[in-house]
Design brief:
Elements lengths: L6 E6 L5 H9 L5 E6 L4 H7 L5 E5 L8 H12 L4 E5 L9 H12 L2 E9 L2 H5 L1 H15 L6 E5 L6 H8 L5 H5 L6 E11 L3 H18 L1 H20 L1 H18 L10 H17 L3 E3 L2 E7 L2 E6 L7
Parallel strand pairs: 1-2, 1-4, 2-3, 5-7
Antiparallel strand pairs: 4-6, 5-6, 8-9, 9-10
C-alpha cells in the first residue's frame, strides 16, 4: 500500500489535454498537479479553475537549455511537496497510474516506468526494434530514468540547487537526473507515439544520440563498438544473423509485452545502426518542440526558434 506523502505531479505541455484530465482525476486532496507551459495559455488557466489542486505554471522562454528542461525546473521550484512525479502528455495514464508510482516509491524508492515507442511514420515504424533495445530494454536493464513517468523525493537529490542550476543549462532532463538520483525501473510499459514524419524521426535520432553522447560518453563508445561488430557480423553471415537478430528481437518484444510485427525488421535495423549513429553524432543541431538546439557541450546549449525543420 502506498504511503500518504503529498505528491506533486509536474506535467510540461502546450495545452490542456487528456493527460492533464486523467492525472487531475487521480489526485488526492493533499496532492497537486502543476501543468507547466512556456507562456500563459488561457484554455489551460480556465481548466485549472475546475480543480482545487491543479495549477498553471508559466516557465517562460528557455535560455541556454531545452524547453522541457526549463519547464521541469520551473515545476520543481513551484512544487510545494517533497514527493515529486514527472510525466509527459503523450501517453495514456490509466486510473491507477499515480497510485502505482506511490506504491513503487514506498517499496523501492525512486522508480521509473518504461516506454515503448511506437512509430507514426514509415521510418519510425521501421526503427521500432532500435527503440525497443535502447528506449525500452536499455531503460529497464540500465536503471535509466524515463522522464515520462517517474517518482522520487527531493531528499533523494544530493544537491537540489545544483541540479536545478544544471537543468537550466542542458537539454535532457532525465539524462541529467540519471547523474543525481539512482532509480529502479519497474516492468510496466507505457506506449508512446514517436515521429510523425521522416524529418521528425531524424531529428529525434539526433537528439537521442546527443543525449547519450553528453550524459553517458562511456556508453556511447560501447554502443559504437557493439553496433560496429554486429554490422560486420550481419554482412559476413547474413542468413544466421537474420535468424539470430529476429529471434532475439522477438524475445525482447515478448518480455515487455510489445505486440508489434516490427520485430521482423531487426536485421535491416542492425545494418542501418552505424549510419544512423554517425548521422546523430555529425549533425550540428536538431529541432525539438519548435526550437532548434545547438548542443556544444553538456552545459553549453544555444536555443533558436525553428522556422522550419531542415537538417544542419
Amino acid at each position: 500500500m502506498a504511503d500518504d506523502a503529498p505528491t506533486t505531479v509536474i506535467l510540461p505541455t502546450t495545452g490542456w489535454n487528456d493527460a492533464c484530465e486523467a492525472v487531475a482525476e487521480q489526485l488526492r486532496p493533499t496532492d497537486e498537479l502543476l501543468v507547466v507551459c512556456d507562456e500563459r495559455v488561457e484554455p489551460v488557466a480556465a481548466r485549472t479553475d475546475d480543480y482545487p489542486n491543479v495549477e498553471l505554471v508559466v516557465a517562460g522562454e528557455p535560455e541556454g537549455c531545452s524547453g522541457k528542461a526549463n519547464a521541469i525546473a520551473a515545476g520543481m521550484e513551484a512544487a510545494e511537496t517533497e514527493r515529486i512525479v514527472w510525466t509527459d502528455d503523450d501517453f495514456f495514464h490509466p486510473p491507477d497510474w499515480l497510485e502505482g508510482l506511490r506504491v513503487d516509491y514506498e517499496r523501492q524508492g525512486p522508480t521509473t516506468e518504461v516506454p515503448v515507442f511506437v512509430g507514426q511514420d514509415p521510418l519510425s515504424v521501421a526503427l521500432e526494434p532500435a527503440y525497443a533495445v535502447s528506449g525500452t530494454l536499455g531503460v529497464y536493464v540500465g536503471n535509466v530514468p524515463w522522464a515520462g513517468s517517474l517518482v522520487f523525493d527531493r531528499r533523494d537529490l544530493e544537491d537540489e540547487a545544483a541540479f536545478l542550476d544544471d537543468l537550466r543549462r542542458t537539454v535532457s532532463d532525465d539524462g541529467l537526473l540519471m547523474e543525481y538520483v539512482e532509480v529502479t525501473p519497474v516492468k510496466r510499459t507505457r506506449r508512446v507515439e514517436m515521429g510523425g514524419s521522416t524529418r521528425e524521426t531524424l531529428e529525434n535520432q539526433v537528439r537521442f544520440t546527443q543525449i547519450l553522447r553528453w550524459h553517458a560518453p562511456a556508453s556511447t563508445a560501447l554502443q559504437a563498438l557493439v553496433t560496429g561488430v554486429l554490422t560486420v557480423g550481419c554482412v559476413l553471415f547474413p542468413l544466421p544473423a537474420l535468424a539470430l537478430t529476429t529471434l532475439c528481437m522477438a524475445g525482447i518484444y515478448a518480455t515487455f509485452g510489445i505486440r508489434r510485427s516490427t520485430f521482423l525488421a531487426a536485421y535491416p535495423v542492425v545494418l542501418a545502426a552505424v549510419p544512423l549513429f554517425v548521422y546523430g553524432l555529425a549533425r550540428r543541431s536538431f529541432v525539438w518542440g519548435g526550437r532548434r538546439y545547438r548542443w556544444h557541450d553538456k552545459f553549453d546549449v544555444t536555443v533558436e526558434r525553428a522556422e522550419r525543420v531542415s537538417p544542419e
